[in-house]
Amino acid sequence: MPSVTHEALVELFKNRPTLAAELLHDALGHPVPTFTEARVESSDLTEIVPSDRRADVVVVLLVGEQQRAMAIVVEVQLGVDPDKPYVWPVYVTQTRARHRCPTGLLVVTIDAAMARWSARPIDTGHPGWTLTPLVLGPQGVPVVTDAAQAKAAPEVAVLSAMAHGQSEAAEAIGLAFLAAADELDEERRAVYGDLVLSSLNAAARRKLEAMMKSGYQFQSEFARGYVAKGRQEGILEAKAQAVLTFLEARGLEVPVEVRERVLASTDLAELDRWIRRSAVVSDARELLATTGS
Q1: 118-to-73, 75, 135 alpha-carbon distances in Å
Q2: Residue 242 three-state SS
Q3: Does pTM top 0.90 for this prediction?
Q4: How many Cβ atoms sit within 10 Å of the Cβ of residue 242?
């Protein structure tokens, strides 16, 4: 099953169709034909490969309305998969046959070891046909610390955080993204913001969170929402701990299922009701069984 990180990286390429071409040209120095539009096409390749096999993203570069200049198969690779050397050539040939244009394979990873594994030439067994994947690893991802650059290409800024979030540049990367966050639509702002902050090292994340809570000048919609979310989570956690503390202070055993249910609650009214009930129940299990106040 694809991981959250895998799906997040895939979404970056779907949300910014030009991203694959930009990274091929700017980061890898690979020639890309002149095009007027980049379009995400169906990545379903079930005509040849089994129904559970499909490329992560297929991008077609267009000149005008119909002329296809190039197709790019984008594969996000986060772990060793012995099937990939066999299916990647199929992805390339099937995409080339479908769109009738030159086709390249771009493998994206945020792990240096996986970049080396993915870059190994694939000998197909046919004379003269060895597929060498074009691989974008962490070293090839630009370090985006400029707010203007982050605004112009937010997906690259997110990719930068995922690739370099544990480096000394982490804080500057986070600042650049936060300065650009308000120009994103609500859905991308929330998803990208979570990705960026979760990718940063602990020191950078603490610094940025503290700056947001103190009303720093870049206080954006994302920053305000993040702070509000943090406060809400803090209130929920405090109330949940109060329930458990009251039960334990009265000498009641708290079963694992009760503890987990209380800590998982996101309903303030429910937690308030449990706080009141924790003072009178004779068994911790009664806390979950009652609907009264």
Answers
A1: 14, 10, 7
A2: helix
A3: no
A4: 16
